[in-house]
UniProtKB/TrEMBL annotation, chain A:
Pfam families from the UniProt entry: BPD_transp_1, OppC_N
Annotated protein name in UniProt: Peptide ABC transporter permease
Localization per Swiss-Prot or TrEMBL: Cell membrane
Annotated transmembrane regions: 78-99, 106-128, 134-160, 199-229, 249-274
From TrEMBL, chain B:
Membrane topology: Peripheral membrane protein
Family: Belongs to the ABC transporter superfamily.
InterPro entries: AAA+_ATPase (IPR003593), ABC_transp_ATP-bind (IPR050319), ABC_transporter-like_ATP-bd (IPR003439), ABC_transporter-like_CS (IPR017871), Oligopep_ABC_C (IPR013563), P-loop_NTPase (IPR027417)
This protein's GO CC annotations: plasma membrane
Database matches in Pfam families: ABC_tran, oligo_HPY
GO annotation terms (biological process): peptide transport; transmembrane transport
Listed PROSITE patterns: ABC_TRANSPORTER_1, ABC_TRANSPORTER_2
Intracellular or extracellular location(s): Cell inner membrane
Protein name listed in UniProt: Oligopeptide transport system ATP-binding protein
Gene3D superfamilies: P-loop containing nucleotide triphosphate hydrolases
Domain ABC transporter: 17-256
Record keyword Lipid metabolism present: no
Species of origin: Devosia psychrophila
Length: 284, 330
């Protein structure tokens, strides 16, 4: 009986658990990079330039995923790159969630002119070609870690605003909110204690999707050369470095590309999984 | 008449406006239409009527939970019609509401303790140490074990949740509580227990109730006075005993006849008193007497002129042309 319950749980949650496992591995690798990575991220070995991955003719176990044009170990750079991707992703999720949820909360609760004004803001943001805006902001204000995080957060806050707005509009008509009003609970307390906690689960779902989106956006910005700067390896920077060697050293591009794709996929799997588990209408 | 009545409503009207669109003029629905009502200290007034007759809206309007279009409401002699913001929130400690659905009226993310402490905190209880005993006392008064305090609403049955909702309404020691169909979501066996709780709390805290119900039979033994509503208007009001013994309005008679009788062989309802058809749309109420489309004793005058309230003695009043101009014989 026990075993079958466990196997049913595994089968139902397989994809979500897979996503979670990948994210945990990437996060652990990022945190323990100095111990996990075989070389430093900037360690140059000019004798071993453009070495292919270990499983290809000419590759060696010294560099499992091969080396780049300066002889730097790609596996190590991918591992260190995860630090940038995940910290930008996490920072952007926190900032985006705070801004977006706040705007969605006000918009959904007060409705009317407040909603019209804030929804207009959301629509403007959605209509704006984001990459252009990001390049403009980063080239004007410089591309440090903080500005990249803020710019990536700009790309995701809209998701929170829209989802939270919808959730709040349904929660605010619940009888317990009317009960709170008739007890005399002030509006700010109603928002904090009644509306927000009951809209929180949807914020978590959006956050896990947005994490993936943020990682992708950071990679795109680094690829375009407006990221955190090439001294720190980032998956996007590595993709850009590999571009000119695509013909004879595809692994320079493929390895960070696979790392990005896997992490984004894992984030989306987790998001899907949480959404299904949190929404009671979808729960079996 | 020394103390002012708990609630005095004069010409109370509540309107809901439909959205105006390009092809449709704005529609106005009078959910409560020109209602006069007085509730004395310590009494239980039941408001009875079919769904959609405006009884819940009337209760909400008296507590200023829904906007009032015309008329005024006095609470213990003080005009509360125009109160707003802080003053209204402060006044709310004295009148409370209990809702129909105990599954919807408790915040699922707050423990029972937090739910019951909330009114105290909001109304200025600064001494946190004094809150706990008050909450636990109120739980016992509502017939719940004080050990339930740390649990969450989903752990309770409907009857227990309704007890929590009642405790929340009573914890500030209000003077007046509007009970909006507090029994209709509960099993019959629970209904009696909750009614007993209402009676006990009323004595303990000297409460005044406005008790909204669609079930006339249920309130006869419980209410002191009963107001019967039809399409936003009170058509008859009087003591429970008078209304039971001598209902004056055809609608009241129809409601009494429709109630299941404990002794069906003895009092068979007269066929003339049974109701036909549905309640008309409040957006477009019938002209004259609003009840004339369904009245078994309808006369010509009912279709054109709206009846006024006639005093039948002992506080019983009804709005029906039969009382002022009886039908001619033949």
């Amino acid at each position: 009986m026990r075993r079958s319950a466990t196997s049913v749980f595994l089968r139902r949650n397989a994809l979500g658990l897979l996503g979670l496992t990948i994210l945990v591995i990437v996060a652990l690798a990022a945190i323990f990079a100095p111990w996990v990575a075989p070389y430093g991220p900037a360690k140059i070995d000019l004798m071993a330039r453009l070495a292919p991955p270990a499983w290809i003719d000419g590759g060696s176990l010294k560099h499992l995923l091969g080396t780049d044009n300066l002889g730097r170990d790609i596996l190590s750079r991918v591992i260190y790159g995860a630090q940038i991707s995940l910290s930008v992703g996490a920072g952007a999720v926190v900032i985006g969630a705070l801004i977006g949820s706040f705007i969605g909360l006000l918009s959904g609760y007060f409705g009317g002119i407040v909603d019209a004004a804030l929804s207009f803001l959301v629509n403007v943001q959605l209509a704006f070609p984001f990459t252009l805006l990001a390049i403009f902001l980063l080239s004007t204000f410089g591309g440090g870690f903080t500005s990249v995080v803020v710019v990536v957060a700009l790309a995701t806050w809209v998701n929170y605003a829209r989802v939270v707005r919808g959730q709040v509009m349904s929660v605010k008509n619940q009888e317990y909110v009317e009960a709170a009003k008739s007890v005399g609970v002030p509006t700010d307390r109603i928002l904090r204690r009644y509306i927000l906690p009951n809209a929180f689960s949807s914020i978590i779902v959006v956050a896990s999707f947005s994490m993936a989106q943020a990682i992708l956006t950071e990679a795109a910005l680094s690829f375009l050369g407006v990221g955190i700067g090439s001294a720190t390896p980032s998956w996007g920077t590595m993709l850009n470095d590999g571009r000119s060697y695509l013909q004879n050293a595809w692994w320079m591009t493929a390895m960070p590309g696979v790392a990005t794709a896997l992490t984004v996929l894992a984030g989306n799997l987790c998001g899907d999984w949480l959404q299904d588990r949190i929404d009671p209408r979808l729960r079996k | 008449m020394s103390a002012p009545p708990i609630i005095k409503a004069m010409g109370l009207t509540v309107e809901f406006r439909g959205r105006r669109s390009l092809f449709k003029p704005e529609s106005v629905v009078q959910a409560v239409s020109n209602v006069d009502l007085t509730i004395e200290q310590g009494e239980t007034l039941a408001v009875v009527g079919e769904s959609g007759c405006g009884k819940s809206t009337l209760g909400r309007a008296l507590l200023r939970s829904t906007p009032i279009a015309h008329g005024r409401v006095e609470f213990k002699g003080r005009d509360i019609t125009r109160l707003s913001g802080r003053a209204l929130r402060d006044a709310r400690s004295q009148f409370q509401m209990i809702f129909q659905d105990p599954y919807a009226s408790l915040n699922p993310k707050m423990s029972i303790y937090e739910t019951l402490a909330e009114p105290l905190l909001v109304h200025g209880a600064t001494d946190r140490a004094s809150i706990r005993p008050q909450v636990l006392d109120m739980l016992s008064a509502a017939g719940l074990d004080p050990s339930f305090a740390e649990r969450y609403p989903h752990e309770f049955s409907g009857g227990q949740r309704q007890r929590v909702a009642i405790a929340r309404a009573a914890i500030l020691r209000p003077d007046f509580i509007v009970c909006d169909e507090p029994l209709s979501a509960l099993d019959v066996s629970l209904q009696l227990q909750i009614l007993k709780l209402f009676t006990a709390l009323k004595q303990q805290f000297s409460l005044t109730y406005l008790f909204i119900s669609h079930d006339l039979a249920r309130v006869f033994g419980f209410a002191d006075r009963i107001a019967v509503m039809y399409l936003g208007k009170i058509v008859e009001i009087g003591t429970a005993a008078d209304l039971y013994r001598a209902p004056a309005h055809p609608y009241t008679r129809a409601l009494i006849a429709a109630a299941p009788s404990p002794n069906p062989h003895r009092d068979i309802p007269p066929a003339a008193a049974t109701l036909r058809g549905d309640i008309p749309s409040p957006a477009n109420p019938p002209k004259g007497c609003r009840f004339h489309t369904r009245c078994p004793q309808v006369m010509d005058v009912c279709k054109t002129r709206e009846p006024t309230m006639s005093d039948l003695g002992n506080g019983q009043r009804a709005a029906c042309h039969l009382l002022t101009q009886p039908p001619m014989a033949g």
